[in-house]
Amino acid sequence: MNQDQLKQLVGEAARDEVLKLPAGQILGIGTGSTANCFIDALSAHKTHFLGTVSSSNATTERLLKHGFKVLDPNEVDQLPAYVDGADEIDPAGHMIKGGGGALTREKIIASMANRFICICDSSKQVPVLGSFALPVEIIPLYKGIVARELAKLGGMVTLRMAKETRTDLGQTSSQPFVTDNDGWILDVAGLKIADPIALEMQINQIAGVITVGLFAKEKANILLVSNAFGVSRITF
Ligand code: 5RP
């Protein structure tokens, strides 16, 4: 089974998981290719839910295309569940997220939910977080100051760039990747994150940081993870 098939498999398992919720509730929905598989799998059952709350512009677009109702999170008190992928997940359910750049809204919507249901294939399971460069969304104006503070953690800090585009004159142009909140992303490579809760708090204290892609406080409560043999359900 290739990775796309594994994502589809776990997306279908997540559909079956959320259909166990009583009808008429509002569901939080994440961002990325695995979350997309979940949205596609759930679309035939959209009337089971009163509506959804989305974690990015890309997810909102996909949800609307499928005919889901997308609600303003400010108008919603709480969510029974939030379903999203991850870039890495450790044995305690702590995650690195933000590979797709949607970490801030993902963390806000996750904080509204009673349960975080993480969906991924088994390549995302790691003993210790940090092989995947840690995304940190920042205020662009203070890029240098925040980058210097992040470098003190011992990793290598890189400004995330958007895909190169070709200009009218045929030259390639490279611009920083801009988030849905008009932030930029610094990726910190080479960290071995032994204490995700402490590091999340430490990075949150750096002035100029909008959100760190460590989901330790908002960790997963349920993990649905696929491999060639099927999908396992792990609770934390
Ligand atoms: C986006 C995320 C995604 O959940 C994460 O990057 C995993 O994406 P994919 O399912 O495409 O592997 O955090 O900000």
Keyword list:
236 residues, alpha/beta, Alpha-Beta Plaits, 2 domains, four-stranded antiparallel β-sheet, 27% helix, binds ribulose-5-phosphate
Structure description:
This protein has 236 residues and is an alpha/beta fold. The protein folds into 2 domains: 3-126 and 216-235, Rossmann fold (3-Layer(aba) Sandwich); 134-212, ACT domain (Alpha-Beta Plaits, 2-Layer Sandwich). It contains 6 helices and 15 strands. It has helices at residues 3-18, 33-42, 57-65, 103-112, 143-151, 196-204; strands at residues 25-29, 49-54, 81-84, 88-89, 95-96, 116-121, 134-138, 156-159, 165-166, 172-173, 184-189, 209-212, 214-215, 222-227, 230-235. The strands form 4 sheets. The chain has a 6-stranded mixed beta sheet, sandwiched between helices. Strands 8-11-7-12 form a 4-stranded antiparallel beta sheet. A 3-stranded antiparallel beta sheet has the order 4-5-13, covered by helices on one side. The two termini are 27 Å apart. The relative contact order is 0.18. Residues 30-34, 84-87, 97-103, 106 line the site of ribulose-5-phosphate (5RP).
Instruction: Count every beta strand, where a strand is a DSSP E run of 2 or more residues.
Output: 15
Order of strands side by side in the largest beta sheet?
2-1-3-6-14-15
The CATH architecture term of the largest domain is: 3-Layer(aba) Sandwich
The name CATH uses for the topology of the largest domain is: Rossmann fold
Rg is 18 Å
List of distinct ligands in this structure? ribulose-5-phosphate
What structural category characterises the helix and strand content?
alpha/beta
Query: How many structural domains?
Result: 2
* Low confidence ranges: none
> Biggest sheet, open or closed, and with what strands and sense?
6 strands, mixed
Roughly how much helix do the residues carry, as a percent range?
25-40%
Mean pLDDT: 96
SSE pattern: HEHEHEEEHEEHEEEEHEEEE
Shape: globular
How many helices does DSSP assign? 6
Task: Tell me the strand percentage band.
Answer: 25-35%
Highest CATH level, the class of the largest domain: Alpha Beta
